[in-house]
Amino acid sequence: MKRSLFAWLSVFLLVVVFADRQSAYADCRSFASDIRNGGLLVADAEGKVLAACNPDQPFIPASILKIATALIGLRILGPEYRFRTELYQDAARNLYIRGSGDPFLVAEEVALVMDRLREEGVRQINGIYVDNSRFALEDDVPGRGTSDNPYDAPVGATAVNFNTIAFRVENGGKVRSAEEQTPTLPIMRELAGGRGPGEYRLNICQAGCRPEETGARHVAELFRALQRARGIPGDGPLGVGRVPADALLLHAHENSRVLREVLVSVLEFSNNFVANQVFLACGAGRYGYPATWAKARRAAAEVLAELAGTETADPIRMVEGSGLSRENRVTARAMVELLRIFAPHAGQLPERQGVRLKSGTMAGIHNYAGYLPGSRPFVILENQQANTRDRLIRRLRNMYSEEPLAK
C-alpha cells in the first residue's frame, strides 16, 4: 500500500512539473515576437503565477538588481540606519577624516560637520588627511568603466558628492562650481582643462586615476574650502593618512539621511555609486569592518536565500550591488519573489503610465521589474539586441490589469 501511494505521488508531482513547464513554454510561444533571449513572469499579489516564460533561466539583470540591494540593506542595516564619519585631531592640529562608506557625505553634510567642529572649539586646522582604512577592497567595482560619466564613479570609504564634480566653464574660460552649496575647488579647474563653455558633471576618476588618492584629495579640498568659509585658520598638506593612535575624537557625524531616504537615490535615480556603498556596508554590517566585496557577496547571498528561497539553482547571483557587472544573474521567478517581499516599499520605484517599475539597461540588456496595477509583481528580462520591453509592458498591463491602456 505504501509503495502504491509513493508511486501515485511521484506520478502526480511529475504531472504538476510537466504541466508547469508546458504552461511556461506556451507563454514563451505567445511572447515569441518580443522575447528572443530572455524571460518573463507575472504573478498576482498572493504570488500565483499568471504568466511565465523561461522563469528559472538566469539572465543579466542590470539595474533591476538594485531592488535586491535595497532589500538586503533594509534587512541587514535597517530603515533607520545612519552612515557615520569620524573626525579626529592630533597635537599638531591636523584633521583626520575616517569614513565608513557614507554615500551621502555631500557638501551640505560637510558644512554641518564644519559647523559642529567650530562649536566644539576647533580654532585651527592644519593638514587634512583622509583615513580609508574601513574599506579593504580586493579590486575595483566589477563592471565599472573608465569613462568620466557619473555612473562610472568609484566607491570609497570616505567620499564626498558621490565622487563626482559639477562645474561650469564660462565663455572666458573661467571655471566655477555648478552647485551653490559646493565651493569651486582646485580639482574642478584641473578636470575642466581643455573643455569648452558649458556645464559638466564628471566622476573624479578617469582612465589611469588612483581612486583612493584622487578621492582623498577631493574630500580634503572640500573640507578645506568650507573651513576657510567659516574663518577657521590653518594650512597644510592634503591627502591620505591613518588616524594616529593619540589623536582626539572631535566628532562622530551621523548623516542627516536614514537608509530609507538614501535608497530613493538607489531606486528612483539608479545611482550606481550609492548602490555599491550600501552593498559594501551590508557586508560590513554583518561581518564587521573593513568592508570587502567578499563580505558583501556573502551577506547578500545569505539574505537572498532567506528571502527568495533556494528552490531553483543559483536564482540570484550578486557580485556587486548596482547591476553594472555582466557577471550578475537573476531568474524571473526569484526576482518576482523579491518583488512580493518588497511590496511595502513599492512607492519608492518610479512610475510610468501607472506602472511602478525599475528599469535595467545596458548594451543588449533591456529589463523591467515592478508592479502592474493591482499590486501584481512582474519582471521582463531581455538579454537581446531588440528592445521590446515597452511593448511588452503595455501588453501585460492590458492582459492583467482592470484598467487597460487605450490602444
Provide an overview of this structure:
With 407 residues, the chain is an alpha+beta fold. The protein has 2 domains: 21-78 and 262-400, 3-Layer(aba) Sandwich (Beta-lactamase); 84-257, no CATH class. Helix content is 35%, strand content 20%. It has 10 helices and 16 strands. Helix 2 runs parallel beside helix 7 and helix 2 packs across helix 8 (293-308). The longest helix is centred in the first third of the chain and has 29 residues, at 2-30. The protein starts with a helix and ends in a 7-residue tail after the last helix. The model is unreliable at 1-26 (pLDDT under 50).
At the first level of CATH, the class of the largest domain is: Alpha Beta
Say what oligomer this is: single chain
How many helical stretches? 10
Radius of gyration based on Cα positions: 25 Å
Summed up, the domain count is: 2
Q: Which regions are unreliable across 5 or more consecutive residues at pLDDT < 50?
A: 1-26
Major sheet summary line: 6 strands, antiparallel
User: Class by helix and strand content?
Assistant: alpha+beta
| Percentage of β-strand residues | 15-25%
Order of helical and strand elements: HEEHEEHEEEHEHEEHHHEEHEEEEH
Mean pLDDT: 90
The rough form would be described as elongated
CATH topology of the largest domain: Beta-lactamase
Q: How many strands appear in the DSSP assignment?
A: 16
CATH H-level superfamily of the largest domain? DD-peptidase/beta-lactamase superfamily
Q: Based on the structure given, which CATH architecture of the largest domain is correct? A: 3-Layer(aba) Sandwich
Order of strands in the sheet with most strands: 2-1-16-15-14-13
Distance between the termini: 59 Å
What proportion of the residues is helical, as a percent range?
Answer: 25-40%
